Structures are given as structure tokens and as C-alpha cells.
Amino acid sequence: MTKVLVLHSVSLVRSALAALLRSEGPFEVTSAGWRSAARQTESLRPDVTVVDLDCPGATAVFSCDKRADRQVLAPPSPVLVLASTGAPGLLHRAFRAEARGYVDKDGSPGRLVRAVRKVAAGERFIDASLASAFMEADPVPLSPRELSVLTRAAEGDSIAEIARTLHLASGTVRNYMAAATRKTGARNLIDAIRISRRAGWV
Fold first, then answer.
1. In degrees rounded to 5, what are phi and psi of residue 38?
2. Alpha-carbon gap, residue 42 to 76, rounded angstroms
3. Cα–Cα distance between 138 and 159 in angstroms, integer?
4. Which residues pair with 108 in a beta bridge?
5. pTM for the complete prediction?
6. Residues 152, 155: Cα–Cα separation, whole Å
7. In which element (H, E) is residue 161 found?
8. What pLDDT sits at residue 198?
9. 201: alpha, beta or left, given left = phi > 0 and alpha = psi -120 to 50?
10. How far is 182 from 39, CA to CA, in rounded Å?
11. Within 10 A of 171 (CB to CB), how many other CB atoms are there?
12. CA separation for the pair 51, 17 (Å, rounded)
């Protein structure tokens, strides 16, 4: 029996995905929101963790700074992402974080089932329709620490909160913000967040 954990912020969506997988194969499926994701991953030890890249909170799974980001989920199981061709930046970030499977959300349910089986068997799975999106993904110009700071700022954290969470001095946080603004070619921090979100970096 293949153990699958489905993570999504929307209860109806994760329940539907779980029901689909249960009906299509010998899968023991558990679904969870982000608040219980880390706990479920640790206790269940799933063979595959399914994550929707467009789901709010999904980028925390692929944080480049796992030691400092409080929302980071580092599943011991391979990650399979549901993605769309319009988010090459998110695909690139998932790839750098070594996600094992990539399923086009516009594809058939059978593709998801096949991908789960492949990833559970230790293989890679990449929908052909996502291949061009991988090619279009721009390299992320920000360092892991700059990404962590910008992600926190995008969530509305103050400089003091970011400094406390990432164990940095407030001045260092400001320096990272300034560097991120410069590297993205933005006018200010708000603009840097907008550009980074559009590219799928945060």
C-alpha cells in the first residue's frame, strides 16, 4: 500500500484529490492543511507528498533556507507537485528543491495516478506539457537568505519580526531587502515583492 499525503490550503480541493487517489489505486491517502503539514509528514512518513504549487503556502515547502524559515516543511518523502505552465518560476524553484514529480494541472486524473506510482517507486515524472515551462524559467537572481527575507516581507512581517524569526540583526534584514530590490530591478520593496511573486520566486 502506497502512503500518500496531499497538502493544500483549501479543504474541498485536498479532499477531492484524496478521494480521486483512493478510487484509482492501492493508495493510503491522508490530506492536510499547512498548519498540520509538518506534524502529519513526521508521523505518517508518506511515500509521496503531493503539493499544489498554486496553493498559498506551497512555496514554504521549497524554501532555499531550511534552517531558518519557520514555515519550512522538509518532507522525508519525495514531493510531487501539481503545476501549471504559466508559473515557470515556481517550477524552477521546485526543481531546485529536488521535487521528484511534476504533473500538469490541466492534464487527466490518470496522469496524477501514474505520477504518484512512479515517484513512489523512486523514479522521476515530468509531464511533457511542462517541459517548455522549465526551459522558460528565469534563473532566480536572489540568494537563499534574500529569498527568505523577501518571502517574510511579502507575508506582512515587520523588519523586527523577520529579524527575530531568521535570527538576524535588523540592519542585516534591511541590507537583504535593499539587495533584493536592486537585484530584481524594482523601485522599492513593494515592487520587488510584486516582481518576485509574478516570477514565482516567493
1. -60, -40
2. 8
3. 28
4. none
5. 0.68
6. 5
7. helix 159-166
8. 77
9. alpha
10. 38
11. 10
12. 10
